[in-house]
Design brief:
The chain is an alpha/beta fold. The protein has a single domain, classed as Carbon-nitrogen hydrolase (Nitrilase/N-carbamoyl-D-aminoacid amidohydrolase), CATH 3.60.110.10. Helix content is 23%, strand content 26%. The protein has helices at 22-36, 69-80, 88-100, 176-183, 200-212, 235-239, 279-282, and strands at residues 7-14, 43-45, 103-111, 118-125, 131-135, 157-160, 163-167, 189-193, 215-219, 222-224, 244-253, 259-265, 269-276. The strands form 2 sheets. Strands 6, 7, 8, 9, 10, 11 and 12 form a 7-stranded mixed beta sheet that branches. Strands 5-4-3-2-1-13 form a 6-stranded mixed beta sheet. Helix 1 (22-36) packs parallel to helix 3 (88-100). It is globular and about 60 Å long. It starts with 6 loop residues before the first strand and ends in a 24-residue tail after the last helix.
Length: 306
């Protein structure tokens, strides 16, 4: 492990996207970057699918062997609100990263520039405005009728003064070999944009921080029932949801599995933390999952990168 800068300040943004609205979600993201930057963070982290929101509870008219025209219209509305990587939205976010000299991680619904496929993606912008995009390897459950499997951008990492950082989106973290693929790249900060407000997820993220001897940034979002557009064709499904559809629970875990910041529920907020970057190396003294505590002569991971 190369020498790391001692301190990394993280701004973890727990906020509600503007559902189905690309422009308004982007404007909110830019405003939150401005606000977070008042405390001079090194890394600013947003939740999963912040642009244009995670459509919890919707199925877009899909059922086994059937679709509906109303559902197709709602899906096209979501498609239109999705972002083509490298487009105008990326330019605006890139300029914000350059303006504040920060790394910015943000989840978005990615619209392929050539095909008609959507991907559940996460982008990390660097202070020079460059970026890397990670597409979710395997959409979870009914996500599979909305988003395609990643066909590139499997395990990109961003090299920073605080070590390599990378992301796995939501339940990708339940793919053990995907975690190891990131560990093998030496990540010190593991970013998880997600919508997991279930209590058992907290046990998962503590385990991963211990296993990988890295900081775990748990970036969850707030979604309220009244945030959905009332003119969706599938709005009857929305009416069945609880008032607080996603409660958040964003927090930061250190490499010992301890909370640096406790989970925050049911509110929009920016969580700030200063990370001691001596810990990822110190914690590897007795346990390094891809170093001295591994058996490459017995176990081997082969990653097919594109």
């Amino acid at each position: 492990m190369k020498d790391l800068e001692k301190n990394c300040r993280v701004a973890l943004i727990q906020a509600e996207p503007v559902m189905f609205d690309k422009r308004a979600s982007l404007d909110k993201a830019l405003a939150l970057i401005d606000k977070a930057s008042e405390k001079d963070p090194d890394i600013i982290v947003f939740p999963e699918l912040f642009i244009p929101g995670y459509p919890i509870g919707l199925n877009f008219g899909f059922s086994m062997g059937k679709r509906t025209e109303e559902g197709r219209a709602d899906w096209k509305r979501y498609y239109d609100a999705s972002v083509v990587a490298g487009g105008a939205e990326f330019t605006a976010l890139s300029e914000a990263a350059k303006k504040y000299g920060a790394y910015v991680s943000l989840g978005f619904s990615e619209r392929d520039a050539v095909s008609g496929t959507l991907y559940n993606s996460n982008v990390i912008f660097e202070p020079d405005g460059s970026c890397k995009v990670h597409r979710k390897l395997k959409p979870t459950g009914s996500e599979r009728v909305v988003y395609g499997d990643a066909d590139k951008g499997y395990f990109p990492v961003t090299v920073t003064p605080w070590g390599p950082i990378g992301s796995l989106i939501c339940w990708e973290s339940y793919m053990p070999l995907a975690r190891v693929a990131l560990y093998e790249k030496g990540i010190t900060i593991y970013i998880s944009p997600n919508t997991n407000d279930n209590p058992e997820w907290q046990a998962t993220i503590q385990h991963i921080a211990i296993e990988g001897k890295c900081y775990f940034i748990n970036a969850d979002m707030i979604v309220r029932k009244d945030s959905y557009p009332a003119d969706l064709n599938e709005y009857p499904a929305v009416e069945k949801l609880p008032e607080m559809v996603c409660r958040g629970g964003s927090c930061i875990i250190d490499p010992f599995g301890h909370y640096v910041t406790e989970p925050v529920w049911d509110e929009e907020t920016i969580i700030f933390a200063d990370l001691d970057m001596d810990l990822p190396a110190m914690c590897k003294m007795e346990h390094d999952a891809v170093g001295h505590y591994s058996r490459p002569d017995v176990l081997e991971l082969i990653v097919n990168e594109k």
